[in-house]
Design brief:
With 193 residues, the protein is mostly helical. The longest helix has 25 residues.
Length: 193
């Protein structure tokens, strides 16, 4: 799961959303954050573990592994955000543009508690409206290219749009089945935080 899915799966809890968003940049125990944000970080880690071990997700990564090796999971996370954004109206009554705008505002309203890594990302995220652009294959291609550049083009992630297009219906079907299951998992997990 990438940014959009993590934020969406946090439900209506703003602190969970923030924690779920910043979690990748936090190592160890997140004691320096408000309790709600700490719970969001824990939730993010649980979502990642569940996703990485799930048979449907692993089936998708196998399609990518030969060309992208250990980056296959990262690519699948981005593909899944694409399918969530593309099919957003199935999952939310709030238009994606409005959901994204509210989340960007939430980040700016809580700027002081964000880690430096997240603070550095926000201007790019909001200027290019990442969460909304995920809905188009062009937006995903741009995201994959940017990520590839961060690996000095060693990952070749920018080329994975080819597999996205080739197996588009299969990936989308897998996402739909997987997302039903992860929503139930997250609902239970939130109740235990």
């Amino acid at each position: 799961m990438n940014f959009l899915a993590h934020i969406y799966l946090s439900g209506d809890d703003d602190q969970l959303k923030i924690g779920n968003f910043v979690a990748d940049g936090i190592h160890g125990k997140p004691h320096d954050f408000p309790i709600g944000v700490q719970k969001g970080i824990v939730l993010h880690r649980a979502i990642d573990s569940y996703t990485d071990a799930h048979p449907i997700f692993r089936q998708g990564t196998k399609r990518l592994h030969a060309n992208y090796h250990h980056y296959a999971g990262v690519i699948m996370d981005i593909f899944y955000d694409h399918f969530l954004a593309k099919n957003w109206s199935r999952y939310s009554n709030i238009p994606l543009q409005d959901f994204a705008a509210a989340f960007y505002k939430l980040l700016y309203d809580n700027y002081d508690i964000l880690p430096e890594r997240s603070k550095g990302m926000i201007p790019h995220m909001t200027q290019h409206n990442w969460l909304v652009t995920y809905a188009g294959v062009e937006g995903i291609a741009r995201t994959l290219t940017q990520m590839d550049q961060r690996t000095k083009n060693a990952s070749n992630m920018r080329h994975s749009v080819k597999e996205l297009k080739e197996y588009y219906d299969v990936f989308e079907s897998e996402f739909t089945a997987f997302f039903e299951e992860i929503q139930l998992f997250v609902k239970d997990k939130i109740n235990t935080l």
